[in-house]
Specification:
phosphoprotein; single chain; alpha+beta; six-stranded antiparallel β-sheet; five-stranded mixed β-sheet; about 150 residues; elongated; Tumour Suppressor Smad4
Length: about 150
């Protein structure tokens, strides 16, 4: 009887070890895929046409929520940064369980807008790439915060 218990314990431990290795590999693959979505790589190949279209449209004047609880919400942009999060003093107060109190900030620099993550728990994504530093946001490019998706529009 003791031999059987010992053998089952060994098999259970081995199974847990393999599950841990599997989880570690999945996490690494997700991180590598997110890093592979960097702005330099994402907009290459046909990106020149898109950049010309953006310049023709002008700079962003509105922030539009395209998906999530606040879909179709539109904010007129000015010269001040836009704070995104669940905090009551945010410019756009997100009613999203996956958003942090102070999740991200959109800041103007000349005619361009930059998004930066403010140390959120679940991260901020520009298109499909995770935002780790301040990144320029092209017009009509989705910014995802939890289940909420926003875009800059002319």
């Amino acid at each position: 009887m003791q031999g059987l218990v010992l053998q089952l314990t060994r098999i259970g431990f081995l199974l847990l070890l393999w599950l841990f290795v599997y989880a570690a590999i999945r996490t690494l693959r997700a991180d590598i895929a997110a890093a592979g979505g960097s702005p330099l790589r994402r907009y290459s190949g046909g990106g020149d046409r898109r950049r010309r279209t953006e310049r023709a449209k002008g700079s962003a004047r509105h922030l539009v929520v395209t998906h999530g609880a606040l879909a179709n919400t539109r904010i007129t942009l000015g010269a001040q940064p836009v704070l995104l999060g669940r905090a009551d003093d945010s410019t756009l107060v997100l009613t999203d369980d996956y958003a942090s109190e102070r999740h991200a900030r959109l800041s103007p620099r000349g005619d361009d807008w930059y998004v930066e993550d403010l140390g959120s728990t679940n991260g901020t994504y520009l298109d499909r790439g995770k935002v780790t530093t301040a990144v320029r946001v092209p017009l009509n490019t989705p910014i995802r915060i939890g289940k909420t998706v926003i875009e800059l529009r002319p």
